[in-house]
Design a protein that fits this description.
Blueprint (H helix, E strand, L loop, with lengths): L7 E7 L7 E6 L7 E11 L1 H7 L10 E2 L3 E9 L12 E4 L2 E3 L5 H4 L10 E2 L11 E5 L4 E2 L6 H4 L5 H11 L8 E5 L3 H12 L3 E6 L4 H9 L4 E4 L8 E6 L6 H8 E9 L12 H4 L4 E4 L5 H10 L9 E5 L3 H10 L5 E5 L7
Parallel strand pairs: 11-12, 11-14, 12-13, 14-15, 15-16, 17-18
Antiparallel strand pairs: 1-2, 1-4, 3-5, 3-9, 3-18, 5-6, 6-10, 7-8
Helix pairs in contact: 4-5, 4-9
Length: 345
């Protein structure tokens, strides 16, 4: 960025857990070698942001700019290797911001488990600001046909959902999938699963008729409350809601040999349950972060299906309202902050 450009930007900053985000002026960051400076176009919000705000994810680098579903236009590149992202290129930045590349996890292709990993909007400032920096190697080209507001949810809700769905096995192994918590990730995963010719069973909070209607609209063959038993045994279940009580419920809903995938970064304590729910070679597995391979695969697949994201749009000045709506479950699909200030959905 030339010295003639302005030096500060507006950002939404979390100072301490439990506080509202505050809009403030902050110096526009300069990219280090191998990084790019992005003019942020849109940034999605998700449950992880709420967990950081609530202090449920400790050791965040406060004060912090939240936001890890960034769509931005390259404004400046720095250092060797950065020239592949030309000025003006629109890219997406996910939760995974950096890995060491040397540990056993990285060597085995499990960079999502890297002990030296760094995360966007947690260890490093994120996208709820006019500008953000990111490592070039952790940026993804945005698929054709996705405007920034529709692309943003693909970068976490889509990627984590895709990784969780892959953990259930392919269509032959798991033709019947249960989705617990029908928010941003589930509304994307539902489309992928149906495209793969799977049957989707939706689970929503008791009394959430709006969420139930949204799940049916997306093609779920059955929708019930989170503690209901589906009409047939499921082959696998993915839990997006951060509610530990759902783990025994999901175990009771899957067949012998079925899998329960816990797809959130944080969950309330799982209560004790009888061994009989786990017996029969049922399995519980968590999803931790994502890999760049997940990103490349999913963002190639998304336009083929094509995945359509439902978004509720907020300007940066209403980011606290967006977080409150997300917390209350009042959003169909995903919440996205439009850095150009659009307020309509």
């Amino acid at each position: 960025m030339s010295s003639q450009r302005r030096a500060t930007m507006t950002a939404a900053i979390l100072a301490r857990p439990g506080e509202r985000l505050a809009l403030a002026a902050k110096p526009i960051p300069s990219p280090a070698p191998g990084q790019v400076l992005l003019e942020v176009l849109a940034c999605g919000l998700c449950r992880t942001d709420l967990h950081i705000v609530d202090g449920e994810l400790p050791n965040a680098a406060l004060p912090l700019v939240l936001g890890h579903q960034i769509v931005g236009r390259v404004a400046e590149s720095a250092g060797p290797g950065s020239d592949e992202l030309a000025t003006g290129t629109v890219v997406g930045v996910p939760w995974l911001a950096h890995t060491c590349g040397r540990c056993d996890h990285c060597a085995r292709g499990n960079e999502n488990l890297c002990d030296g990993a760094r995360f966007t909007g947690y260890d490093r400032d994120g996208g709820l600001a006019e500008y953000a920096v990111a490592e070039r190697e952790y940026c993804f080209p945005i698929p054709p046909g996705y405007p920034p507001l529709q692309a943003a949810p693909l970068l976490c809700a889509g990627l984590i959902g895709y990784r969780a769905l892959r953990m259930t096995g392919n269509r032959e192994a798991a033709p019947r999938i249960g989705l617990y918590g029908f928010g941003a990730a589930a509304h994307i995963v539902c489309q992928v699963a149906i495209w793969e010719r799977r049957e989707v069973f939706g689970f929503v909070r008791s009394g959430d008729e709006r969420g139930a209607a949204f799940a049916r609209e997306l093609g779920a063959v059955w929708v019930g409350s989170s503690l209901d038993h589906p009409p047939v045994p499921l082959d696998a279940a993915i839990i997006f809601a951060p509610v530990g009580n759902l783990v025994p419920a999901a175990l009771a809903a899957v067949r012998k040999g079925g899998r329960v995938i816990c797809a959130g970064i944080h969950m309330s304590d799982i209560p004790s349950f009888p061994y009989s729910l786990l017996w029969g070679e049922r399995c519980i597995q968590s999803v931790a972060n994502l890999t760049r391979r997940d990103g490349s695969e999913f963002l190639t697949l998304a336009p083929t299906i094509p995945v359509r994201t439902a978004v509720t749009v907020y300007p940066l000045g209403r980011v606290n309202e967006a977080l409150a709506d997300l917390r209350a479950g009042g959003i169909d699909g995903a919440a996205v902050v439009d850095m150009h200030g659009a307020a309509e959905t």
